[in-house]
Amino acid sequence: MAVDHEALVAMLDRLKLTAIRDQLDTLLDEASRSEMTLREALAFFVGREIARRDERRIQMASKIAQFPFVRELDGFEFDAQPSLDPRQIRELATCRWIAHGDTALLMGPPGTGKTHLAVALGREAIRQNYSVQFVTAATLVALLAKAHMDGTLEKQLTLLSRPKLLIIDELGYLPFEAEAAHLFFQLVSRRYEKGSILITSNRSVGEWGSVFGDPVVATAILDRLLHHSTVITIRGDSYRLREKRRSGLLQKTGPALGATENAAQ
Ligand code: ADP
Ligand code: MG
Known about the structure:
Mean pLDDT: 90
Bound molecules: adenosine-5'-diphosphate, magnesium ion
Low-confidence stretches: 252-265
Strand content: 5-15%
């Protein structure tokens, strides 16, 4: 059967197999060069199409998630953070906890990689087809307070309950007003046992009473958050400061080297 190039491209177009269409000649060459069987060649072509769709889906979902930066688990140096058990992070990366609607809390001083890990775990969740939303605690509280004022709280709570994983970054940097704490409680209750929450905080759980202003609300929030949860506490030095210290050491070897090291930061 003779099939000309144009006709084949038109068929691929019609089925929206754009990855195969765009790489058609390369894929055909590769298949014949490696002497693939027809079955192998079909799997090879379809595999390319799936790979492109996955890539697009991950890109789109990452945009929707609004991560502050791109970070992956591969880029995390566990050696630099000995208090952290890599197995715990790898377990979280399986996303089983998200399938169950559980909670994860990442605690530690500033600069110890909490946001890095939160983003990397969020991207992993997206790869496994979970919807993810990233928000800082300050932005979240502002959103809820505004919705409360505008009479759209219900709508906002529904929106924030939609993603399967909600990442709330930097809880505890700013203490909550009494009303904010109550709104936060409503969100946590709404998501409880339905959608996962990952919280990063520079405060230990024991200090949350002062974060939420009111120990009763704090207890109610913690009660739900800790029920099915993984709590990871990082006790270590700031990675940022560690890098600074390193460059400080290098600076002693000569001003020129020190200058480039600083510029590279
Ligand atoms: P935190 O949220 O705990 O304040 P971040 O996650 O923002 O800290 O980390 C600060 C910077 O240092 C980020 O650019 C992050 O990627 C990097 N970083 C922190 N810890 C590590 C680590 N162990 N390995 C690699 N990069 C790290
Ligand atoms: Mg952070």
